[in-house]
Amino acid sequence: MSLKIEKIGIANRGEVAVRIIRACQELGIQTVLLHSDVDRETTAFRLADERVCIGPAPTNQSYLNIDTNIQGALSAGVDAIHPGFGFLSENAEFADACLKARICFIGPAPEVIRLFGDKISAKKMVERAGGPVIPGYQGDDQSESRLLSEMEKIGFPVIVKVAGGGGGRGLKVVRHLREAKEAIASSQREGLSSFGSDRIFLEKYLDKAKHIEVQIFGDCSGKVYHLFDRECSIQRRHQKIIEEAMSPSLSEELREKLARTSIQIAKEAKYVGAGTIEFLLQDGEIYFMEMNTRLQVEHPVTELVMGVDLVKAQIFTAMGQSLVWPKLPIPHGHAIECRIYAEDPYQAGIPSTGRLGSYHFPYGPGRRLEIGFDSGDEITSFYDPMIAKVIVWDETRGRAIQKMIRTLKDTIIFGVKTNIPYLIQILSHSQFIDGTMKTDFIDCYFPHGIKRKEKSSFEQNIAAELYRQIPVGVNSSTCLAAPGSGNGREHNEGKTISPWTHQWGRR
């Protein structure tokens, strides 16, 4: 059934909101940004055709509040809502509320979101479809004694997961029985506070695994495409940092098996829209981990190697229109994505919030920047401190790594500290270059971030001499002076801000 969509509400923020707005602009669709009151100084706010404030900064009063999102969308007269990723994107109640309000939810049906949102029901469905699952316990008996008993049967290490969770939240790795009670209680608390349920399940923890995922897409005719795989083994505290397409770790035989299994799972669920099926690969065996019923943060690497636009495909599918993709899309080249965070890489990644200064991105062939802020915008402490995503494409993986390192080195961000030097060191590591890195990579090599390189006495002398020669009274917008250092230079402070007098991000 076809549906005319002329105005889309965007229930999200940051770079994903910008991504959706730009796709809508190209399709001639009006956009309405549903935003919190602290997100007025953002690129999405300025780009959207209309804006509706849905509440204050706390997410439970704005981006996670179903009622205010629905009321905001209705007040603007939208035909559909795109949830982006995170927040309400995998909330079946939100999808239900949209349908009840006669607003098209751009995503899979609520019952499918519900099926995969409950990790236990998802594993059972995958088992029925013949998919490989990790050995574990998903039973109804949630008593502490039963869970402890099951852990001993599985054998340590064991991972505790929240049944209704996702995105790494509530995950606890238990390596010894003595740690088990606290891990169970902690996961149950996080599950209850974040997902409204304290139900958990257990799995054998694969501590030498690779994280591989398959992008699938179900169109409005019932056809399921697989758009090949991504590797996301570079993770910190179960959060991805660097992603690439395709995985350097799969043989053609294993790649074909993954694709076949993914299509089978999607067809079993009658899946429509964009989705990602995540697997772990260890000792040559693959295991189903979970399915995300939404667009992924890392979707651009798939778009670059497959030559598709997943956001537009989502919108066309919601309108009941067929896709123009070939029956068997063929990948080309290699793409890598790095997430740039406002954080201090020399202090274990503590957030570095504040006002974003000027920035420069070295655009060129095969280079893509997705950013949700402009110079002068505030990076607040209310939300995830990701500033932007840098994505590169080249003909081979080796060239893509070289291009990413060059691109990051030439990227300049003033105003806040960033993890750019951290990313460069990861990309330069021999295990990343040869593609053998696993999910324990960060714990093994960068558990506390990176160490600052000490300046040589020669470099210190040059810096001191440069500073000494800066004329007193020079306009601070062109001044390289350090703050509060005397010599009568402080009188310019407060008039204009020199990026060099603040935390700066060129690496």
Written account of the structure:
With 507 residues, the protein is of the alpha+beta class. 32% of the residues lie in helices and 23% in strands. The protein has 16 helices and 23 strands. The protein has an eight-stranded antiparallel β-sheet with strand order 14-13-10-11-12-15-22-20. A five-stranded parallel β-sheet has the order 3-2-1-4-5.
Gist of the model:
By secondary structure, the protein is α+β, with helices and mostly antiparallel strands. Helices cover 32% and strands 23% of the residues. It has an 8-stranded antiparallel β-sheet.
How are the SSEs placed, and which strands pair?
Layout: E1 7-10, H1 14-27, E2 30-36, H2 43-47, E3 50-55, H3 66-76, E4 80-82, H4 92-100, E5 104-105, H5 110-117, H6 119-128, E6 136-137, H7 144-154, E7 158-162, E8 172-174, H8 180-195, E9 200-204, E10 210-218, E11 224-236, E12 239-245, H9 252-268, E13 273-282, E14 285-292, H10 299-306, H11 310-318, E15 334-341, E16 343-344, E17 350-351, E18 354-355, E19 359-360, E20 367-371, E21 378-379, E22 386-394, H12 397-409, E23 412-413, H13 420-428, H14 430-434, H15 441-445, H16 457-468
Parallel strand pairs: 1-2, 1-4, 2-3, 4-5
Antiparallel strand pairs: 6-9, 7-8, 7-9, 10-11, 10-13, 11-12, 12-15, 13-14, 15-22, 16-17, 18-21, 19-23, 20-22
Helix pairs in contact: 4-5, 12-13
* Radius of gyration over all CA atoms, rounded: 24 Å
Helix run count: 16
> Main sheet?
8 strands, antiparallel
Class computed from helices, strands and strand pairing: alpha+beta
User: How many strands?
Assistant: 23
Integer average pLDDT = 90
Spatial order of the strands forming the largest sheet:
14-13-10-11-12-15-22-20
Q: How big a fraction of the residues is strand?
A: 15-25%
Can you tell me the residue ranges where pLDDT is under 50 for at least 5 consecutive residues? 474-507
End-to-end CA span:
52 Å
The rough form would be described as globular
Helix share, percent: 25-40%
